[in-house]
Amino acid sequence: MGTPRLLLVHAHPDDESLWTGGLTARHVDAGGEADLVMCTWAEGTVRHRELTDAVGILGMPRPPIMLGYADDRRPESAPDAPRLCAASFDEQVRALTAHIRELQPDIVVTYDALGIYGHPDHVHAHRLACAAADAAASTKLYHRAGPAWRVRSLYFATIPEWMMDLLAPSLFPEIPRDQLPGTPDSEIDVTVDVSDLAARKKAGVTAHRSEVDRSRAIAGFLSLPDDVQHKLLSVECYQRRDLVPGGCELI
């Protein structure tokens, strides 16, 4: 087969750049197809506009697909919609299944089972992506959502232990290290070197201007020395789960 088609499933605007921006830019630059489903924030909100700017920086060929649920801690993100974690899971799976069947990705990329660092929206997005990838392949489920389509592999973005070791003293000094996340190297299946794309990835992150102003963690990250920022932005790590024999290589 040729270059695989990617579908990225993220919970919040900025996650697409921070956790998978290098992979996305490299894939699109190489002529690959990639689409983004964003679970929270409604079209027309400030963070939707910032997200549109960010995916343009990363080179994505189409606007993000907004599921339009509310961010767990930001009700203004979608004033007329329920929180992502409180809405009907079946309705969410049905909606994402329809997008998978329409777009026909070979690979779905989302967070690991911990949601990288435990945010409930991230954990929920992981579960939603896994459930919809399974459902999309079934001829018995969601007949009105289009013909069945089998995703070949799931890839889960994760934060390695060494990266958290670098971040913890500056960003989380009050939290004991053993209470912070971090995936050991032995549990990481794919490490992607995106050092040549680190500046573009950072530009994608900083396009989320309102979140840079609001988030202590992102502001703290951007205040780190340039060489530390570059090291952190230069690597993306993933766990892999094949849904068909042999699966599909990410890069």
Describe what you observe in this structure.
This protein is of the alpha/beta class. The protein has a single domain (6-242), classed as Rossmann fold (3-Layer(aba) Sandwich). Helix content is 41%, strand content 16%. It has helices at residues 15-18, 21-29, 46-58, 89-103, 115-118, 120-136, 161-171, 198-206, 209-214, 216-222, 226-233, and strands spanning 6-10, 34-40, 65-69, 107-111, 153-158, 190-193, 235-242. Strands 3-2-1-4-5-7-6 form a seven-stranded mixed sheet, with helices on both faces. The longest helix has 17 residues, at 120-136. The model has no long low-confidence stretch (mean pLDDT 96). InterPro entries: GlcNAc_PI_deacetylase-related (IPR003737), LmbE-like_dom_sf (IPR024078). Keywords: Zinc.
Architecture, CATH level 2? 3-Layer(aba) Sandwich
Quote the beta fraction.
15-25%
Series of secondary-structure elements, N-terminal to C-terminal = EHHEHEHEHHEHEHHHHE
Oligomer: single chain
Summed up:
It contains 11 helices and 7 strands.
